[in-house]
Design brief:
17 strands, elongated, 3 domains, Elongation Factor Tu (Ef-tu), domain 3, OB fold (Dihydrolipoamide Acetyltransferase, E2P)
Length: 391
């Protein structure tokens, strides 16, 4: 085995390094290095994820207020058609009260309207020949009576009245003699009673005949003339009205009367309709305070209805630092504790008044979120969490 001495090995290594250096080209001048203090300092980088939604807690609430229903008129309840918790439709009759008097009022109002319209139709019918003849005869009679009154009694009438008075006086004297003869022996006999009655009748006839005679002797008074002339005017007005028909003023009055009668009928019918309590919506009966046979006062609440057609999600822990991030109309996804489903909606309003503060003093506000229609039964008070898309 060949053993080299250390000196020989060192000389060989130096020769090898020298040969390598000779074969590698060397730069003529080394590049200048910048001072250490002038180099830019590299800043560490960190990826930051943008927040795109905000999660807040809340509960479901009614979008529409509860509806309290009451009768506008008082009466005794005759029917109750809805029970607590029942779903009712718009237009359903929930209850009714005794409407007998209200029905009678409608019938009376209808009868009054029918009679008025019948009278108006009669006024518009042309007069018959018989009506015109009767009106003409009445006018002639009124004129004749007026002329007699104006001219006063004729001498013939006075003479006849005087003779009637004289005859009545003689009859009175004869009846007096007969009475005296019949009652001479006593007043309790039958003949005496008959004679006494005849005497009384003769006395009344004598007074009447004398009064008629003295009346004819008096001049005609102004009151008698006025009364006689009034009869003439009335008869003439009647005949003119038959010939002319209804005037424009009469037609206007008739129209007003018809309108008043129609208004009275409408009011009576409206009162009759108020005897029924009708649901104004598709609702759930929340409270019932009505029973058959029980009297109810006007405007006393009989039913309370809840309208579930529109529901809102009201936030309960929306803090003030997040209010500015929320935009009206922003889409929202909602998860309720009652269902595994996801419900959708949008922000409809932000209430201006704070609803309170947290323990750290930060104000809490309420956002209202309208829910899209869903097939699930959603009830007020159901709680959950809403995820609001931020702008």
């Amino acid at each position: 085995m060949l053993h080299l001495k250390p000196k020989v090995v060192l000389i060989g290594a130096i020769s090898f390094l020298t040969a390598c250096s000779a074969s590698t080209p060397q730069p003529t001048q080394a590049p200048r290095q910048k001072p250490l203090e002038s180099r830019p300092t590299a800043m560490p980088t960190r990826a930051v994820a943008a927040t795109t939604s905000l999660a807040v807690d809340g509960v479901l609430a009614l979008a529409l207020p509860q509806v309290a229903l009451s009768f506008d008129v008082s009466g005794r309840i005759t029917a109750v058609n809805a029970t607590l918790g029942q779903a009712v439709k718009k237009g359903d009759v929930l209850a009714a009260i005794d409407n007998t008097a209200l029905k009678n009022a409608v019938a009376d109002a209808q009868l009054a309207l029918d009679q008025l319209e019948a009278n108006i139709r009669l006024q518009n019918v042309p007069p018959s020949k018989a009506d015109l003849a009767a009106a003409t005869a009445a006018l002639n009679a009124a004129y004749a009576s007026y002329n007699v009154t104006k001219d006063g009694a004729s001498q013939t009438s006075i003479n006849n009245a005087r003779m009637s008075a004289d005859a009545a006086w003689l009859s009175y004297l004869s009846a007096q003699s007969s009475r005296d003869a019949a009652c001479g022996s006593g007043t309790n006999t039958q003949d005496c009673k008959l004679a006494e009655a005849s005497y009384g009748n003769a006395y009344e006839s004598m007074l009447s005949a004398r009064e008629a005679y003295h009346k004819l002797l008096k001049p005609v008074s102004q009151d008698a003339l006025t009364q006689a002339y009034s009869s003439v005017v009335a008869a003439q007005t009647r005949l003119d009205a038959l010939n002319a028909g209804a005037s424009a003023e009469q037609r206007k009055i008739a129209e007003v009367q018809v309108a008043q009668a129609q208004a009275a009928l409408a009011l009576a019918q409206d009162n009759l309709n108020k005897a029924k309590l009708i649901s104004p919506c598709d609702c759930i009966v929340q409270a019932v305070d009505a029973a058959v046979g029980v009297g109810v006062a006007a405007h006393a609440t009989a039913f309370v209805l809840v309208n579930l057609s529109g529901m809102q999600f009201k936030t309960t822990n929306l803090v003030e630092r997040d209010v500015a991030k929320i935009q009206i109309g922003a889409p929202v996804t909602i998860r309720l504790r009652s269902y595994p489903d996801i419900f959708n909606g949008k922000v409809s309003a932000l209430l201006a008044q704070s609803s309170g503060t947290q323990t750290n003093g930060e104000a809490v506000y309420t956002a209202l979120i309208d829910l899209n229609p869903a097939r699930k039964v959603l009830l007020p008070g159901m709680s959950g969490q809403a995820e609001i898309a931020l702008r």
